[in-house]
Amino acid sequence: MKYRMCKTCVMDTTDPDIKFIGNGCTNCCPARANYRKITKEKQKLKSIVKDIRKAGTGNKYDCVIGLSGGVDSTYVAYVVKKLHLRPLAVHFDNGWNSELAVKNINKILEKLDIDLYTYVVDWEEFRDIQLSFLKASTPDCEIPTDHAIYAVLYKTALKHGIKYILDGWNIETESVLPKKWSYGHDDWKYIKSIQKEFGTMKIKTFPYYTKFQKYIYKNIAHINRIHILNYVPYKKSEIKKLIKKQLGWRDYGDKHGESFYTKFYQNYILPEKFGYDKRKMHLSSLIVSGQVTRNEALKILEKPLYNTIEEKEKDIEYFCEKMQITKKELDYYIKIPNKTYWDYPNYENDVFSNIWRKIDENYSK
């Protein structure tokens, strides 16, 4: 495909599925429509809060929130307390937390007086799973972390009889999400199949949920997931100033900079192996929500992902040391043919999972 960039956002043909519509594209145009739809629903906040309080009557906590120390999860904690809800914070420690992230989390908990449950994953097992995804050559190496986070959130909510999980996903900053860049976060069959093919260890302690378990959480235990930031004003630059002032939060300099793995994955592995620069989707989302202009986004994209070669080499060395691989092995994984979610067994190709999905859809009507 001949290279082309959208004239409305900054997504381009590095997204294999992109199609162009006039001056827009199939990434930003649907996102713009969804953004308008969501912004009209902000008046529902009072009703949502009322339902959460009612469901939590007699319980110590009325909601569960994830806490990573990043902007989104920090603001969720701030908003929830401002709404006078009683959250239990959950942190999934996958072994990649930056020192600053730990400090930010501690400040947030202290300032907002929130209880925390931390799930510390077995590092050797988790490292082996992450390495399996690198060997699988797919552009979604964050899936083990993302899946485990929600598994722990669901299990914690069920254990404490809590009916609401409030997360930090929001359409203001994450509306543009190219499907081929990352897919299968809910798919335990996909994760299991990759570990079976490329791993050296059996999965014993890694937290997960199956399609059936998710159905139970949602329709039997009646645990609801709410994107709470879709119901409050959310301008990224203003929120950063607010949490710095109110909570003593310190900026990481990069989106998801609270995790070294995420930073390295997005700044080195994705661009080197797949040609994906995730800044394009993040900035396009901000363009859609009117938080930056396209010209401002283009100027940001002109800057290199690493300021210096020395900085990049230092990160490569640390990553290889922690993952227990050589630089030569990392280079090999980057050069082998690229694959996607659809090249491996997954729930979308599973007959029984499709049956469960239809049951779930009918139940939800």
Short summary:
This protein is α/β, with parallel strands linked by helices and 365 residues long. The protein has helices at 28-39, 45-55, 71-82, 99-112, 123-136, 143-160, 171-174, 188-198, 211-220, 236-247, 260-274, 279-288, 294-301, 309-323, 327-335, 351-364, and strands at residues 20-21, 24-25, 63-66, 87-93, 115-120, 164-167, 224-227.
Percent of residues in helices comes to 40-55%
N-to-C terminal Cα separation, in Å?
A: 41 Å
- Overall structural class, as computed from helix and strand content, comes to alpha/beta
DSSP helix count?
Answer: 16
Strand percentage, roughly?
A: 5-15%
> What's the helix-strand series?
EEHHEHEHEHHEHHHEHHHHHHH
Largest sheet: 5 strands, parallel
Total count of strands:
7
* Rg: 20 Å
Low-confidence stretches: none
Strand line-up of the largest beta sheet: 5-4-3-6-7
Overall pLDDT metric: 92
Q: What global shape is seen? A: globular
What does this structure look like?
- With 365 residues, the chain is an alpha/beta fold.
- Helix content is 52%, strand content 8%.
- The protein is built from 16 helices and 7 strands.
- The protein has a 5-stranded parallel beta sheet, sandwiched between helices. A two-stranded antiparallel sheet has the order 1-2.
- The radius of gyration is 20 Å and the shape is globular.
- It starts with 19 loop residues before the first strand and ends with a helix.
